[in-house]
Records
---
Amino acid sequence: MINGVRAIACFRFRMKSLRPDHSNRFEKRAKLLPACSALPPQPSRVNAHPLPPFAADLTHGASPTVLEPKPLSILIVEDEPGDHALVVTYLRHKTFRNDAGTPHLVWAKTLGEALAAARGTLFDMVLLDLSLPDSAGVKTVSTMTAAQPGTPVVVLTGNDDDELAMAALAAGAQDYLVKGEFDHRALGRALRYAMARGAQERRLQLFEVALNSAANGIVITDIDGHIEWANEAFVQITGFSIPEVIGKNPRQLVKSGAQDHAFYQHMWNTIVSGQTWRGELVNRRKDGGLYHELLAISPVLTADGAIKHFVAIKQDITERKHNEQRLELALVGADLGLWDLQLPGNDLHISARVCSMLGYAEGEMGTKAQDFELLVHPDDAPVRRAAMNAHISGDAREYHAEHRLRHKDGHWVWVRSRRRIVARDENSAPLRAVGTMRDISQEKHLKLEGADLLQRIESLIHGFGKSPDTPRQPASVAKCAVIGSREQQVIQLIAAGCTSAEIGQRLGISATTAATHRRNLMRKLDLHSTAELTRYAIAQKLIAG
């Protein structure tokens, strides 16, 4: 789309150079033609005939899209028989022939006859006298161009008047020739350039229609940022009309104050250096309402690298931002973090909530899946990987796993992670996956505390009625198990009736780590309840009996 806009700016600049100046105008146009013809060729119109040999250089060797060549169709609107005869002589010169022969000429002596001839017929060219029995002046041009939209009109007049010439061009004429001052070569050049400019103007109109039909706002500014052109989408987004924005700087219209000076300075430094700037910002509509905008600004460079224009493409993303905010609120309410994985490149986006679960600032955890994998507890990695592979292969509709992740300060955090693949390629290979993550450490702690309480109750029940002088001798005592200093501290605190959370607080470790120590000690000492562990601590003189 930006290339199309560049073509518009380039063409408008060159069209100014192709207007007649009544001073060796034909020779000057001959030199300027290559610049204009550098644009891609325009396909033939529906009823138009192929260009004649003298215009072959404009097609750059492109093959015509018609099956058979047809002679040019030219309407001559001239009331003077002598002038008409001279023009016919020129047009029958071999220069104007194509593969189908000499042009087909239609003569109209009045504007009324010309309009009648134009009904139902699309001519390749109209040669128009400005002094007719039923019409004169610039109005003749505007009437003829309206009757033959898109057909190049070349004015033939006996009045060598620069002001009249410019008015005729403004009314839609492609060129202006003074009778008696041109021969067949000059007429050929004028017709050639007129047809070329007509084709380019139709192309320009096509670009403008396309750009005005675009859903995104498009703005073209000069090097100082003053708006030269804007499309209808820009009007819909901002509420400003086209006349209100032409000549204005966008900051005069939509700047909201939500972004600071440094933001705009960075934007400006980027585009004046010849690079494209992309980003999101908050702007203000004409009615004062704020809207979120996704903006891309690209410089338009000349052949020597100089910046002549800037093209901005603006997308209103207000609704998308509101949806994101609603989603974020829902996730926060459910205490869920969000992550988004682009599988081909393993690019991972993690929400702020996931980062905070693990003690990191947003953007601190890295942007690759490999960075995240390093945080998974080694004991949980196989089960997690198996669940993931089942989902990727299609055996499981979604990925669901509970595992531990290493917190920034070193302890382990239990999380419940869900994932679903939302995009696959034609071979069913995954392209994108999104998922949620929730911290379930407290849930795990409660389960562990519940299990420990149950063990205590069971121990009391089993020990009811037994003599306190004959305690069960733990197998671990006989085995003389080696207990480390940290494990001894944990045993002492368990025997004192502390919960895992209290143990973690006392020893400066997480509750999850304390619970892990508790389970490991039970297995290591072959104990089944807190009461047994307490007796073990007394027997080993870890606590006073």
---
Amino acid sequence: MGAAAQTLQGRVTTPEGKPIEGAYVYNLRTGSHGHANEFGSFLIDRTGVGDLLRIGLLGYATREVTVLTMDPLVVVLETSPVSLDELVITPQYDGPGFVSGIDLKVIPVRSSQEILRKVPGLFIGQHAGGGKAEQLFLRGFDVDHGTDVNISVDGMPVNMVSHAHGQGYADLHFVIPETVEEIDWGKGPYNADKGDFTTAGYVGFRTRERLAQSTIGMELGQFNTQRLVGLFDLLDNKLPNHDAYIATELILTDGPFETAQNFGRVNLFGKYTARVNNKSKLSLTASHFSSQWEASGQIPVRAVNDGSIGWFGAIDDTEGGNTKRTNVNASYFTEIDSATYFKANIFYSRYGFELYSNFTFFLEDSVNGDQIRQKEARNIYGLNSEWGRRLHLGSTRVDLRAGLGYRADAIRDVELSRSFARQVTLEPIRLGDIDQSTLAGYVEARFGLGRLAISPSVRVDHFQFNYYDKLDSLYNNQVERQTIASPKLSFVYTQSEALQLYLKSGLGFHSNDARVVVSEEGRQTLPRAYGADLGAVWKPGKRVMLNGALWYLFLEQEFVYVGDAGIVEPSGRSQRMGVDGGVRYQLTDHLFFDCDVNYAFARSIDEAPGEDFIPLAPDLTSTAGIALVDWKGFSGSYRFRYMRDRPANEDNSIVAVGFMVSDVSLNYQPKRLLVGITIENIFNTAWKETQFATESRLRDELESVEEIHFTPGVPLFARARVAYNF
């Protein structure tokens, strides 16, 4: 029996003295818990001399330590092969978001597309030659390029407000996948620290602070594909409290299309982290990304069926574009005292974008065609800050946190023009400057009532929209201001180390394009989302974990700026409901199985039955796979992803055909050298990666036709890799 219960301080480190963030600490006698912060520091209450603590984290060997004194405790964890035995469900978790940590350790990502696929239920599609941001699908949403999913990297926003191509445009291609250490994600509008675009959910990526070793690698594949990547440790553990590295990536490919993509992308990334007295930490990151490409665009089914073009052909093969982004991000974390912390990051991005598309071919202009150019240049400035403190109200533990954030986008020459073969500007449709800013704050309290945690919170966002129309003959700088409050309430009940139940509820929103806000004079242009999740995480055995949730989401009326046409379209109220389910099962020490199944029922509320389908909203999706991890130097996986047929228009008279695609990989790494092969679409399935119901007219047609226009998915695509660690 322990002595009089007190609060114990401690720290979790590697054998080299590096902090281990996120490690759990669990008192086997009292059920009290804690977890390690950025410095590996933790507090655990209701703990006394003689108590037995369990400390662990996935990827490290779990330790049990007896408390001998109430002096600060230092626990050293050794790395170990990934084992679900080490996974303990503690109150620090509030749902299944941590499963991506399992997936990331079992199957490391090797492309920017694979990064997003680590989020269960999130599907992506590319339809512009590999350089454009992916189209996203999640929980019955066709998210377009990010309208309803908030995406960030190291606290820096990825989504672009009032973007030339589409609201919330989120291009993640500036991330080198080997630098990603952690993926934080959640579905629904339930997190107070997540603001704009957090309706279907959010995804937050965190890059590594240090490298275990330097790496240089090369990949060669079909379609003239080449990838070079290098990660270089600059300090090599010479300074105990300092880490620094740089990473580089070059990708070249022609793709499977009849007209070569001529795709090229360059990434540069650097990060430096300094720790002072195990109390304060400063991280500085800088990155630059540039890409250019040519695209075959979305092609009509009728042109393929009548033999006018091939499956990988084009109607207008002068589509394509270029984009670039430079980022600087400084992050700071400090322990004010053992129960209080403060963290902040300040960021700057310089961004450029130019895209040429042709969706309708000769519908509007029977001579020159309907190609459009979308272009912009922007600077983004911002900061995020958060203060947190643990205290006790009687026997009730309370974790408080409050945050303040600011973001400003200065966007110049936001353009939509009609063009011909990229060379000639035929007619400007929209052209102007946008200045948009957001000031946000939130407060959250988490009350620990034994096994039950209750978390009420509220977030307030204040927007200012400025739009200067350069095509207006008179100077007219239009300004609108709006404020929105988003309350949230969650309950988490941790029955044991093997079972957790949760109920989440809350309001969220996504902003609309500044050109919509000023034209509609602010009416209903910050549409609310109302959501609720009821779910569970369960470990019925040491090496198996199940998760499931029932959910509902309602969206208010909104006005949408259609960047491809320069017009404003109203869309009515909508509702979505569904069920998510997943399993992670470790069959042997080296063999892992995972499966996620997601069903969503999505309908417009104000339309008549039969005419209330939401175009391109997926209803049934699934991903699954089996992975071999570090068996006698071998690692590999088989994975598939499946999306069922879905409506492409409001009455379901046009259907976007579903698909199932399988990928395999195999690597061998006896020591420092790694060799491997990846085959995407191993069964060479002919599938449509992105699909749209579009009205178009071909050059020789007298009347327009509305039907599926699609971008073909990659055929069987093999590439080999070699890498050397040093």
---
Amino acid sequence: MNKYFTPLLIAAACSAQAQWTTDVSMNTAVRAASGNDAGSMLITDGPDGSTYSCWFETVAGNYELHMQRMDAAGNRLWADDGLVVSDHPQNSAIYRSDLKTDADGNAVVAFQDERTGALDIVAYKIDPDGNNLWGADGVELPTPGTTGLAPSVACLSNGNTAIAWNTNDSPGQIAVQLVGPAGDPLLLSPNLIAEATRVSRPVPVATTDGGFIIQYELEGSFFLTPATMYAQRYDAAGFPVWTAPVVVSTQTIPGFFFPAPVADGQDGIYLAFDSSNPDNPSFTDVFVQRVRGDGSLWSATGTRMDNDAGIQKFTAGKKLVWLNDAAGLMVPIQGTDGAQGQSGLLVQRVDTAGVRQLGDQAVPVILIAPNGPVPADISATVDGAVIVTYQGAFGQEHIASTRVDLNGLPVDVPAQMDLSTVNSNKGDIQSSGLSNGQVVVVWEDDRALAGVYAQNITGLDIISGIQPVEAATNGFSLQQNPAQTPVLLLPLDLQQGSRSQCTMHKAIKYMHKPHLPWTVWSCPCWAFPAACIPCGCSAMGRRLRCVG
């Protein structure tokens, strides 16, 4: 069972000022103050298990961009109200922004403000100590002849940064600029992507050659009409690689949907998206597509995650996580009834070839029910994923997490583990990546001391089974076992009727009966099976199974 606190051994090595709390009715404050109106929050992983958060808050009538770095123990490393990244004039509408981490552990944030009198893109790079590496005013990225909105960032393998954004042309275009490590724009003028109708919502994803793939949408004449997804690959100098942009899927996406492509580890991208249900066009469905480094696809449409025509299905958070090439991808899905008055959590796993691994229908982790959970984000674990959900009426929302294995089955009992039981409204719920067995969940919260709060989930590096591990002495080894209990393999000399000890040790206590204290049991494993109490034997003494 996962525990929502930092293990004692880690805590003992950390400062006495550690901020993670075991009280999920309190949580850890990233930024909290009476009347605080922090909004448009983003997070990204920092170095050494830390987490960067950024948000806008009102100061003297202006929206300022603040940032905080929390270390792995939950300590705020900068000022309590966060580092003031920018206090330049802002529009009353914040629009979309982006926050990413480069290979050196620096945070890169891009947004738009009105410092020039019109909306334009600006970007800052902040190091782990809170220094502005691109200067106190960041880097201005104007769009010649027009303005810019909604930037997205990719930190490239050669140390450069690709930043793409929407322009305010008619019809709208996409601008792309490369920024060097020191904050110098590398292109004399941003590259433009233009079509006969509006293109928008660009997301760059880095490739291993210093280049990137941009996934974007062709929207038509109105931004709420269904859009078609495209992708194009660029080299390190910003030139297109493919002869023409690739149509990601013949399935269109809703006008208000923002895909979140991720790298596939082989210079391509994966992305999950909402589209219409092929068997019930009035319902929404979930698909996943792969665009390989050469521009080829799984199929013209991508892979449908669930063949049920009787429920609505929607993506959530990061939309998916890539585990590895052997396990493939985990995809969280919100399932609802037709009227969307009930909700539940489904999960599907798909391999790197686009084949569903959990059957034609996604696994119902938490059944669809009134006031049921809504998935908010997903993070990979060592043997599956942990999915963060929220549920509750207005002003009474709670946050929980559900860990699933590669079969989509809950690891914990109960399946939902509380993360925040404070009765409040919560928004922008996001989870970090896995680091040192821990995932950090951060969100906006309008409780009495409003602002940004966080909670950690630990124990996620412990698998729901036993991995092959060689014992230090006596030739014992622990091996993978499909059952609930570990299997201990004995060396040949002990398979002939010797007495053996079965030890429950702290090193594996979280894998098997975590509530038990340290215990040592002995039993004669040649006596099969009655004499082995509390240890059970199988295969005529060749295996010793701990069942006590």
